[in-house]
Design a protein that fits this description.
Layout (H helix, E strand, L loop, with lengths): L10 H17 L2 H5 L1 H23 L3 H27 L5 H27 L17
Helix pairs in contact: 1-3, 1-5, 3-4, 4-5
Length: 137
């Protein structure tokens, strides 16, 4: 697996950003725009995916990253459940539901794969790179 220097290089973060953009677009239209609670919750859950990937990445340790990835994966499931509500209320057409659901599914699968990789890796994370050097020098 490639070494990433910035969270913006991580494919799952890039896809999560696209999902967030599309959730915002969908929730601004028609009757969906009037259901403030659902729209707000979906926007916050999509932002949560991006934010937790970024925050975990910058914690500097793989255990912390895995913890934040698990939270992001939970937010992806939340989006998928909420998409059913939006579909059932006819806020979004079936095609939009399918597109957003599938994108969210790709993100969740990518997160899961990343978690498996990190759990199998012997690398602890960047914050441990200097921990074994006396006096941090």
């Amino acid at each position: 697996m490639a070494t990433f220097k910035k969270f913006e290089e991580v494919d799952i973060w890039i896809k999560a950003r696209e999902l967030t953009k599309r959730i915002y677009e969908a929730s601004r239209k028609g009757a969906f725009a009037k259901d403030y609670s659902l729209g707000d919750q979906m926007r916050r859950a999509s932002v949560s995916i991006m934010s937790n990937i970024a925050e975990g990445f910058n914690r500097g340790g793989n255990k912390e990253l895995v913890q934040y990835l698990a939270i992001a994966k939970g937010s992806a499931a939340e989006i998928q459940s909420q998409l059913y509500v939006a579909l059932d209320q006819q806020y979004i057409p079936k095609e939009v539901f399918n597109d957003l659901y599938n994108l969210t599914d790709q993100i969740a699968a990518g997160i899961f794969s990343f978690i498996i990789y990190l759990n199998k890796s012997n690398i602890k994370g960047i914050k441990y790179k200097y921990a074994q050097i006396p006096n941090g020098k």
